[in-house]
Design a protein that fits this description.
The chain has 137 residues and is of the alpha+beta class. The protein contains 1 helix and 10 strands; from the N terminus they run αββββββββββ. It is 18% helix and 45% strand. The protein is extended, with a radius of gyration of 19 Å. It starts with a helix and ends with a strand. 18% of the residues are buried.
Amino acid sequence: MKKKITKIIIIIALIFSVYLYLNIRSHEVLSRKSISIIEEIKSPNNEYKAVVFLDGGSATVSNNIRVAIVKDSKKRIYDSDVVFFQDKVSSVDVKWNNDNELIINYYEDEYSRIIDMINRIENINIKYKKIHKGLTE
């Protein structure tokens, strides 16, 4: 009897774990109505693309910029693909330096804030350059 109960508990735990994983992973960036794609920049070898999103915000959320890196063939983009997320801004400059390096030039003022800034995803290094009042640092 104890073995049967243990098996049932393990099966329920596995089902619950899979459900949680899929639920967390399934947060597609474009599923939110306020988000739009500004630009898609393909890597020199066309294997990846950097996708720049603008979230137009709402009454309680300010504009923000997100940059995601995905395989060029990938159709959906998830929150887990986002490598840069900045609040209270509406633009960013993104360019590929080579197949394995992306450069993100972001604008900063006293109101903006960085939510997320990842330096590496898969085999791609990400370099950041802060632009303040029209000058590159």
